[in-house]
Design goal:
- By secondary structure, the protein is of the alpha/beta class.
- Helices cover 37% and strands 9% of the residues.
- The protein has helices at residues 14-19, 64-74, 92-95, 101-106, 110-117, 127-154, 185-194, 215-219, 241-244, 259-277, 303-319, 336-349; strands spanning 41-42, 161-164, 203-207, 226-233, 249-253, 281-285, 324-327.
- Strands 1-2-7-6-3-4-5 form a seven-stranded parallel beta sheet, with helices on both faces.
- Helix 2 (64-74) packs across helix 12, helix 10 runs parallel beside helix 11 and helix 11 (303-319) runs parallel beside helix 12 (336-349).
- It is globular and about 50 Å long.
- The relative contact order is 0.14.
C-alpha cells in the first residue's frame, strides 16, 4: 500500500516532529471570560481532521465544526472569529490530570491510534503525521471543551451556557480510548469543575448521543457528585455492561425510534433527573448520530426532532438556573452540521442563549 500522506515530498525534520507532540507544560490562561464581549461559542479552524483523504475511511464528518461555524456566520449569529473563543492546545500536564502516563505514551504508536480512530490504514502512517493530522486537532477540541465549561461557569446565574463546536469524546476513559475518542474531555471537565472553587458539587451529565457513553462512566463510577443520564440505542456499540453501572438513569432505546417516542422519553426522564439530583452544572453531550439515516446510530430522529431535543435541554436547565456546556459528540451524516447550526440559531431565536447578541 502506498499512501501520499504529507501532500508534499518535504523531509520531516526532528524539530518539526517534536512540535507535533503536545507541550508538556501548562501555558497560562489569559482570557477574561466574565468580562469578554465574545459569545460563549468555542471553535478554531484547527479542529478539522485531515489525512490527505484518509479521514474519509471513517464515516465521521471531520469538517463538522468548520461547517457549523460557516452556517452560523451565514445565519448572522456571528460575524467572524473575533466573536467567539479560540482554544489553545491542551498540554500533557493537563491531560495527566485525568489520563495515565501509560495511555498518553501509547498514543506515540500509530497502531494504537488506528484502533481508537477506527481507521486501520493509520497503522502504516508515521506517528508524526498521526499526531499532526488527528491527535493535535483532538487536543484543540479537548481544551475547547474545558474552555467552554469555563465560559458557562463564568456566566451569571440563570444565563451560563457555552457550546463547543467539537468535543464530546464520551468513549474515552483515563486509560483507554476508542470509538474515534482519543481524549477524555468529559472527565477533564468534571475534574476542572470540582477543583474550580466555585462550589460545583453536583454535576449532571446528560448524554444524548446514540451510543452509550462508557468512557467517562468508567472514570466516574464511584463519584457521588456526578449524576449520569444516558439515552442511547442499546443494541449498538459499545454495549459496556460494566460502565452501565455508573449510569443513574439509563434510557435504553430500540433501533429506529422516531421523534414522538424519543421526545416523550426525554422530557420525562430529564425532568425526573433534574428533580432527583438538583445539579448545579450540566454537561450536555449532544450527539447528532440519532438522525435518521445515520449509519452508526440506527435511530430515526428527524432534524426537527434534534432541534426540539436541544430546546428541551436548554429550557429545563435555564428554568432551574443551571449553567450548561454543550458538546457535539457523534454525528456521521454530512447533513448533521446543518441540523446543529439550525438548532443553535433556534435556541438563539427562542431566547435560550441569553448572552447572544
Amino acid at each position: 500500500m502506498c499512501l501520499k500522506l504529507s501532500c508534499s515530498s518535504k523531509t520531516v525534520s526532528k524539530d518539526e516532529e517534536d512540535k507535533s507532540q503536545p507541550d508538556s507544560a501548562t501555558p497560562p490562561d489569559d482570557q477574561d471570560l466574565r468580562n469578554s464581549d465574545k459569545l460563549p461559542i468555542v471553535y478554531r479552524p484547527e479542529y478539522g481532521v485531515r489525512f490527505c483523504g484518509l479521514q474519509r475511511l471513517h464515516p465521521f464528518d471531520a469538517a463538522k465544526g468548520g461547517n457549523i461555524y460557516r452556517l452560523l456566520k451565514a445565519g448572522n449569529l456571528i460575524t467572524g472569529e473575533k466573536d467567539i473563543h479560540k482554544p489553545r492546545e491542551i498540554s500533557v500536564d493537563e491531560l495527566l490530570d485525568v489520563h495515565t502516563k501509560r495511555y498518553i505514551e501509547s498514543l506515540k504508536w500509530s497502531v494504537n491510534v488506528a484502533k481508537i480512530a477506527e481507521i486501520p490504514p493509520l497503522i502504516f502512517v508515521p506517528n508524526y503525521f498521526v499526531q499532526r493530522s488527528y491527535l493535535r486537532p483532538m487536543r484543540y477540541q479537548t481544551f475547547g471543551s474545558i474552555l467552554a465549561a469555563k465560559c458557562a461557569l463564568a456566566g451569571s446565574s440563570g444565563t451560563g451556557w457555552a457550546i463547543n463546536l467539537g468535543g464530546g469524546f464520551h468513549h474515552c476513559s483515563a486509560d483507554n480510548g476508542g470509538g474515534f475518542c482519543p481524549y477524555a474531555d468529559i472527565t477533564l471537565i468534571v475534574r476542572m469543575l470540582q477543583s474550580s472553587g466555585k462550589g460545583i458539587e453536583r454535576i449532571m451529565i446528560v448524554d444524548l448521543d446514540a451510543h452509550q457513553g462508557n468512557g467517562y462512566a468508567r472514570d466516574l463510577m464511584d463519584d457521588s457528585g456526578v449524576f449520569i443520564m444516558d439515552m442511547y440505542n442499546y443494541r449498538i456499540y459499545p454495549r459496556d455492561h460494566e460502565a452501565k453501572l455508573a449510569i443513574k438513569r439509563a434510557v435504553e432505546l430500540k433501533p429506529h425510534v422516531e421523534d414522538e417516542e424519543y421526545l416523550r422519553k426525554l422530557r420525562s426522564n430529564l425532568s425526573r433527573s433534574f428533580d432527583e439530583f438538583r445539579p448545579n452544572f450540566l454537561i450536555y453531550n449532544a450527539g447528532t448520530d440519532i438522525l435518521k439515516g445515520d449509519p452508526l446510530g440506527i435511530l430515526d430522529i428527524t432534524g426537527q426532532g434534534v432541534i426540539e431535543r436541544d430546546e428541551i435541554v436548554f429550557e429545563m436547565a435555564r428554568a432551574r438556573e443551571v449553567p450548561l456546556v454543550m458538546l457535539l459528540s457523534g454525528g456521521y451524516l454530512r447533513s448533521s452540521a446543518r441540523v446543529i447550526a439550525d438548532s443553535i440559531l433556534n435556541l438563539h431565536n427562542k431566547g435560550l442563549l441569553p448572552m447572544a447578541k
